Amino acid sequence: MLMWIANWAARHAPTPEKQAERALHELRMELFRAEQQVMDAQLRAEYFRARLLFLEDVTRQGIEAVSDQRKGQQELTQPSRPGPRLTAAQ
């Protein structure tokens, strides 16, 4: 019985290779989380940049001019969506 326990302990001992494999998985997850945080921070920075530009435009030009300008941009950027297809594509 003692020999079996010794063999089991030798096979399941935390070798440097096993520890490295475990650490590799953990580090990949940490890298993924860090990259997600960077992307979130970039999105937040872009949001605040756009908001800042909008408020600067409002203070310089007035709300009416900025509103009219933005409405014109929205009309140009909205793609016309085709209606639903009633026939199968051939």
UniProtKB/TrEMBL annotation:
Q: Which UniProt keywords apply?
A: Coiled coil
User: According to the lineage, what is the superkingdom?
Assistant: Bacteria
Which intervals of the chain form a coiled coil? 17-44
Q: What is this protein called?
A: Uncharacterized protein
- Keyword check for Coiled coil: yes
Region Disordered: list its residue ranges: 65-90
